Amino acid sequence: MAAESTMRVLEVSALAPDLAGVALGTRAVPEPGPGAALVRIEAAALGFPDLLMTEGLYQAKPPLPFVPGMEGAGVVARAGPGSQWQAGDRVIVGGIGCAAQYGVFADAAIMALPDRLSFAEGAALRAAYLTAWVALVRLGRAEAGETLVVHGAAGGVGLAAVDLGRALGLAVIAVASSAEKRAEIARLYAPDHLLAGPTGIREEVLALTGGRGAELVYDPVGGDVFDEGCRYTAFGGRLLVVGFASGRIPQVRANIPLIKGFAVVGVRAGEYGRRFPERGAENVAAILALAVEGKIRPHVSAQVGLDDWREAYLAMRERRVVGRTVILPHG
């Protein structure tokens, strides 16, 4: 049972640039309903959608005011009627409301936290690795030995794709903008090749693949990165559209994928799970199994207390993060 009756939260009260509508606040600790659990949140991982959401620029637009943070990990404090969870369970949670000391989550949004992962690592696992799994396995139909180019490889979803790609037996080419980030990626996951980006890599990719091109191109950046990717995706390859962190949504003439014989595939891992619940459960089970076996492991570059939430958001916006930044609500 939760010791506190009130809790500290991060709250978005207005959609505005430069985090002007975000501030710390206090709320009552909520009660879990049927099929849900109250979780004491020990870590909340920030992703780029969390930043966009503060300005109303993300596809999910919760009513104001709302508590941000779409990924977290912690301990079940109290289970509601009929919940499959018990007090004391170590869990990973998904859904709006993680940037708080406590949160109520439906059973379907909760999964067990592998013992080998810390709370911070667990908070950073779900969204990034599910995105990578759906992109590479479900939609990309990756086969061992194929070449994967990962753009934005220092970001949360990019780094997860590098890690998962190695676990799947792919030849991974990681693309990152700075020498410091490339060195850190090499230290963490040792991809087969590291290239300086974000663009100007076509000739290098072709040289590394014997002129064939890459079977899989993982693109969370969009803009010029997508445009160039159309020029080095292999015949029969899959250009995986994960996001548009560059700010420009690119366009491609239909004759280009036709002539070059590749597919442009949109990736929405959350929606994939909602449309295909059985496959969604299989996806979660697959990444949990890999984490339990030690074949994948999220990287957390920084952990900050709730009072330092602004620095965490700014570090992400300014692309200073390799992997994920995590907020510790009780820290």
Provide a quick synopsis of the model.
With 331 residues, the protein is of the alpha/beta class. The protein contains 11 helices and 15 strands.
Notable traits:
single chain; 331 residues; alpha/beta; Quinone Oxidoreductase, Chain A, domain 1; Rossmann fold; 2 domains; 7-stranded mixed beta sheet; 6-stranded parallel beta sheet; 11 helices; globular
Can you describe this structure?
With 331 residues, the chain is α/β, with parallel strands linked by helices. The chain has 2 domains: 6-125 and 298-328, Alpha-Beta Complex (Quinone Oxidoreductase, Chain A, domain 1), CATH 3.90.180.10; 127-271, Rossmann fold (3-Layer(aba) Sandwich). Helix content is 30%, strand content 27%. It contains 11 helices and 15 strands. The strands form 3 sheets. Strands 3, 4, 5, 6, 7, 14 and 15 form a 7-stranded mixed sheet that branches. The chain is globular, with a radius of gyration of 20 Å.
Task: Enumerate how many helices there are, as a single number.
Answer: 11
How much strand content do the residues show?
Answer: 25-35%
Q: What is the number of E strands?
A: 15
Give, in order, the helices and strands: EEEHEEEEHHEHEHEHEHEHEHHEHE
Going by CATH, the architecture of the largest domain would be: Alpha-Beta Complex
Structural class of the secondary structure composition?
A: alpha/beta
